[in-house]
Amino acid sequence: MRCQFCNKERVDRVFYINWLGTVYQVPVCADCLRKMWNQASAAGRTEEFKNYTGWWPGKPDPRHLGDRAFPDAAVPGLVKRRKLAALRVRLSEAAETENYEEAAKLRDDIAVIEKEVCTHGN
């Protein structure tokens, strides 16, 4: 996955934006995230930035792809479909880096979730 802003490879941070009812995934690299923090800080909007991204400098664990990507109150089927999408991205990255053990585990996890999503139809 590439950074939406600078096109660098290997992005592990992501924003999820709900625009007109459609959820868009915006991947961001660490450098661009820091630049956006600096801009928010200069504009006096650090609290809004923290609330929106879930990240700020000095926070020990920035949000990674697949972590709390959706609202807690979302319909269970929607949560599963979004988790499935995040797992597919991780599977692609594991295959790219030739981490076959991780890829096999992710493939199995995807199969289980796909079966649940198709069975329940949510």
UniProtKB/TrEMBL annotation:
Domain UVR: 81-116
Source organism superkingdom: Bacteria
Family matches, as InterPro entries: UVR_dom (IPR001943), UVR_dom_sf (IPR036876)
SUPFAM superfamilies listed in its UniProt record: C-terminal UvrC-binding domain of UvrB
UniProt cross-references to Pfam families, sorted A to Z: UVR
Protein name, entry field: UVR domain-containing protein
Provenance organism: Mediterraneibacter catenae
